[in-house]
Amino acid sequence: MENTKNLPVGYDQPATGTSLIEFKNVYKSYGSNKVLNGISFTVKRGENLVILGKSGSGKSVAVKCLVGLTKVDKGEIFISGKDITKLNEEELNRIRMKIGFLFQNGALYDSMTVRENLIFTLQHNHKNLTAHEMESAVKEALQNVGLEEAIDQLPAELSGGMRKRIGLARALIIKPEIIIYDEPTGGLDTITAREIIELIRNIKLKYNTSSIIITHDLTCAKYTGDRIIVLKDGIIKAEGSYKEIENNADDWVKSFFEK
What we know:
By secondary structure, this protein is α/β, with parallel strands linked by helices. The longest helix has 18 residues. Strand 4 and strand 5 form a beta hairpin. It has a six-stranded mixed β-sheet with strand order 6-7-8-3-9-10, sandwiched between helices. A four-stranded antiparallel β-sheet has the order 2-1-4-5, with helices on one face. The chain contains nine helices and ten strands.
């Protein structure tokens, strides 16, 4: 899926901001299945962190723990200095309002137009907006993903790539501090995947968002990540820039780059 000759590789610049997200020695098991085995990492303000791993490596469970959908067995997870493992549901919901999600399938409501999908999300997070304010926010979000013309269409009328971009507009409409991308290029053709990669990069630059990008797509990792961690069986096997990961001496990490 390369075809990215005009994009610089990753950012390869060390993040200088303070930590917005921090995992400290986090464990999570389901019965005898040990999914996370004491992982620790940070995401700095304005940083794109890629979590790279094969199916079953613990990527998605780490994110579920981050937003409080799954309780950790042991360890601490901080967002903006607050340990979310110790918050009640009301406090968690206030934290979640800072987080935008791009789900793998877009996760749009089929019976709603694009405008209605975005307004639904906006109203959930901001109760007191006027109709004019909501319409302006919808149009701005769609402009950010280049799909203003799709405002009155239903999801069924859109291509897979367009649905993904509308999903991204829905994530952006709440002006999040953090965006979580779940397999953002999954199931897309080469050209559309490149468009999504460019959007991820542009959003970071425009809004200074902090992002976690869950993927097993090396091209996506290469061109979107400031920093990459590689998970295997709930353990961080490698961490660094794309170039550092690519040159890692571990045989299992090397296997990612074998054609």
